[in-house]
Amino acid sequence: MEGFVDVSRILSGSLEGEHVKIRGWLHNKRSSGGIHFLLIRDGTGIIQCTMKKDKADPDEFELVKRLTQESTLELEGIVRRDPRAPDGYEIAVERVKVVHMAEEGFPIAKKYHGPDFLLNNRHLWIRSKKMQTILRIRSKFLEAAREWFRMNEYTEFHAPILITAACEGGSTLFNVKYFDMDAYLTQSWQLYAEAAIASLGKIYTIAPSFRAEKSRTRRHLTEYWHLEVEIPWCDLNCIMKVEEELLTHICHRLAEEMPKELEHFGRSPNDLLKVEPPFERITYDEAVEILRGDGIDFEWGDDLGWIEEKHLTMKYDKPFFITHYPRGVKAFYHKPDPKRPEVTLSVDMMAPEGYGEITGGGQRIDDVNELLERIKEENLDPDDYEWYIDLRRYGSVPHSGFGLGVERTIAWICKLDHIRDAIAFPRLINRVYP
Ligand code: 4AD
Ligand code: MG
After folding, report:
1. Could you list the residue range(s) of the whole structural domain that residue 190 is in?
2. Ligand 1 interacting residues, C-beta cut-off 6 A
3. What is the pLDDT of residues 416-433, one digit of tens each?
């Protein structure tokens, strides 16, 4: 709109000494003597604005005195550099116009609120500095991912959300009534992606996935954003290279473009600049050895759970891979290792510092009989997978893919205690509101 500037432009220093107009929300206010200090938030940043009684219109000065938190206003004045201001610049206010006087009693006060209160008031809590910063990092994260896909000539592909056959096991499927039939919410785009590579070559998606996770944990959402890749003519080694290059690009972009935001969470940009291919690779067998060597009782063939992943990843300060999981703990589509069929050509990427799994994937079965055998072994109904089996009948190729949990990865990058803060409106076992 005519004449208004973004707070971010002022904070970048390019408007020092100039007369500007801004508009936004009253983030916070304090008054001392004849001065009001207003923090104005406009969606691009937060800036301190000072209004002096002796320089202001008396009516406007009185009006500002009564302003409630989160009121919206337009304001004009001169930009000054001031080391005492939170971000180095402030506006010396000349005129103020109130657009909307907010009701008294904005629920989020400047005091400690418990997590349940903040989740109930999530629609307002996303205005906080913490959530604002996470959501901006999240946006940059996805922008960097898309940039990498564009540079490497991937095509974005969209798979259906309403589906009829499980990709990752029946126990976490959400049922949906689909007219007079049963359908489910998708857990992964993968089965459809395997169909689409025969049309488009290498592809990616960034879309929601759903898991009816019955456990309350710090790393499970029931609805999360899934960044997935599928590539023809690609084996296990090839897919690991793609994963490490993609994550490296994202980490470097964040370090370069969001250093202040990262530091807000105690994450040094240097930690992310140190992320470089090749990532360390260990096998499941080696992971079991490490666990046992540290006195943790663990049976070969069991899945690595939260406790084991936490223990292993505390030893690392950069992401790494665990490969060759036993076939018993991986979904039916994972290709058994021809040299050792009790394990699969699978790979999970681990985030360090105790965070654990952030990607899952590997090489897919490309032989029709091997696929039918695994479907039987897992007690699945081949009729449910008829079209998927067809893909091995008409032009099968070796192929691989993976899925990255966006919120899990952001939780690691921002050192969050709980995955729920990596998304604006988290869906958890006991929460679908607001
Ligand atoms: O390991 P998962 O289950 O693998 C798949 O879904 C594959 N079909 C992906 C593929 O190969 N295209 O899930 C992939 C990732 C996990 O590593 C984790 O980061 C994330 O998705 N994830 C969750 N994130 C948040 N909440 C949950 N409940 C999640 N379940 C999986
Ligand atoms: Mg997994």
Report:
1. 122-422
2. 167-168, 187-188, 190, 211, 213, 220-221, 224, 226, 228, 357-361, 401-403, 405, 407-408
3. 999 999 999 999 999 999
